[in-house]
Amino acid sequence: MKSLNRQIGYLGINVIIKKDDIPQYIKIGYRNYNLEKWKQTVANANDAHGQFFAKEGVIGYTEEEKGVSHANTILHEILHAIIYQWNIELGEKEEEHLVSALSNGLTTVLVDNPNLIDYIKNKIKEG
Q1: pLDDT tens for each residue of 13-38
Q2: Which residues are within 8 A (CB) of 106 and not within 5 positions of it... i.e. 6 or more apart?
Q3: CATH number corresponding to 3-126
C-alpha cells in the first residue's frame, strides 16, 4: 500500500500511515512513537486496551479491539504521550482521569459530528 505523510504542525504531531491502515508510528513533539499490536493475552495481563510506554517510545493496543472503542483507545494513549512530551505534571490518578475524560469527550464529539474531522483536516491543509 502507498504510504501517506500527514502533519499537524502546530501540535508537533506527524503521522505516517498506509491507506486504510493504522499508522506505523506517530510523531508527538520531537519523538516518534511506534504503534504496536498486542495479543489479547498481553492486554489481559496489563488489564488495558492500550498503554503508553514513554521510555520505549511505544503505544501498544489490542488487536481485537475495533471501531469506536479502538479509536478512543488510540486517542487516550496519544493524550498520555502529549502530557509526557509537554511535561505536564499531574499525579497518576489525575492524569488518568483527565485523559479518560478528554478521550471520551473527543471520541463522542467525533462520532456525533462525522464531518468535523474532514473540516479540521481541510483547515490544517490551509496552513
Answers
A1: 565 545 457 889 999 999 999 999 98
A2: 75
A3: 1.10.10
